[in-house]
Amino acid sequence: MKKVLHLLSAGGAGGIELLCEQIGLRGTACHEFCFLFGMGEIAERMKDEGLKTYDFSGFSAPIKIKELVALTRKNKYDAVVVHHEGVGTYFLYRCLIKLCKGPKYIKYLHCSFEDKFFYTGNNRKDKMHYRLLSKILKESDALIAVSEFTRQSYVQEFGISADKIKVVYNGIDISESKEEPGEAGGSEGSTGLLYIGRLVDVKGVDVLIDALGILSKDHSLHLDILGDGPARTSLEQKVRDLGLMDTVTFHGVRLDKEAFFKRAQIFVYPPVWQEAFGISIIEAMAQGLICVASDIGGIPEIITEDKQGILFEAGNPKSLAEAIDKAATIAKSGVMPEYTEAAKKRAAFFTIEKSVHGLESLL
Questions:
Q1: Considering the domain boundaries, does residue 96 fall inside one?
Q2: How far apart are CA 163 and CA 155, in angstroms?
């Protein structure tokens, strides 16, 4: 059996971490996971599930390098896969490339390259980040992009041959029974909306709240927000400023998502950057929800036809309000089953088995 070491910055409740968890559980190879700078909810759950994890968060940089090299040599990995972005993660991954010649090195491209959000304004840090990224893209034996859009963004920016980058869509476990979406006009008489993801500026949750402000007089809506992050305080203030305290509920990080899927009819995913994929969109489609999402990045590769979901102009609260209005009307009408069927059928294309096969075919 082949052995693979996955490098992650941390193990919080994000799409990358959930994908790695499923790769570990479903893979035919032996997949092990090293968390370089922190653990988290998914990392702890992976331990409980019997997956082999390593916590290097308490080590200094020189000790991290020493331990990574020792671990790689001892376990004789066939491949090392790096997932997260960042100078620290890139540096450690590159040290392994230079010091351990046995494994195949694979860089996962979970984010599209976009100037607007890559550069922070810290000239020294940005130059170091770009230089390290350029080097590991060239030095890796293979690259995996989670969408065709993401592949092309790296081809255009770094001049990499498209043949070196394999597109492997993220997948989910669709074997479990799916709940039917909630009935519109339930006990509270409102249509349920759901957002799952990090609370950071690029995810566009502020645009979603502004859209609800536009719609508050026309619809009885309720939005559940699952996730946390540095933007939470400002988003909660925006909710108060718009008088939406009874309309929006922040739940923080929740791993028990099933109950929220069950009582929602509409899933909203409103990023303002070139989102590479959006695994939570697939999760919601598999549950039969109407997905309202930004027309940006790799998302149009998920929602490709009418009734699979509704795309809106990214960053535009009015466009999002119109899309939610359309989705809420559908949720209350007799055509909802048609959208549920189309969404589930599309989600069935994105299986974790395909994701695992795409990765393991490179080993």
A1: yes
A2: 10
Sign of the Cα torsion 172, 147, 96, 86 reads: negative
Tell whether 46 and 133 lie within a shared domain. Answer: yes
Of residues 202, 196, 231, 213, the one with CA closest to residue 317: 213
Q: How many helices (H) and strands (E) does the chain have?
A: 14, 13
**Domain encompassing residue 263:** 191-347
Indicate whether 179 belongs to any domain. Answer: no
Q: Which amino acid is at 7?
A: L
- Which CATH number does the domain housing residue 203 bear? 3.40.50.2000
Taking phi first (over 0 means left), then psi (-120 to 50 degrees means alpha), and beta for anything else, what does residue 7 get?
Answer: beta
User: Per-residue b/e over 208-245, b at no fewer than 16 CB within 10 Å?
Assistant: bbbbbbbbbeebebbbbbbbbbebbeebbebbeebebe
Give the Å distances, CA to CA, from 295 to 95, 271, 307: 38, 9, 15
| 133 in any annotated domain | yes
Same domain, 151 and 234: no
Same domain, 169 and 20: yes
Name the pTM for this structure.
0.93
- Partnered with residue 104 across adjacent β-strands are 79
Query: Quick one: 219 and 312 in the same domain?
Result: yes
Would you write out the chain's pLDDT as a tens digit for each of its 363 residues? 999 999 999 999 999 999 999 999 999 999 999 999 999 999 999 999 999 999 999 999 999 999 999 999 999 999 999 999 999 999 999 999 999 999 999 999 999 999 988 988 899 999 999 999 999 999 999 999 999 999 999 999 999 999 999 999 999 998 754 556 655 443 356 899 999 999 999 999 999 999 999 997 767 899 999 999 999 999 999 999 999 999 999 999 998 999 999 999 999 999 999 999 999 999 999 999 999 999 999 999 999 999 999 999 999 999 999 999 999 999 988 899 999 999 999 999 999 999 999 999 999
| 84 and 160 both lie in a single domain | yes
What is the number of domains present in the chain?
2
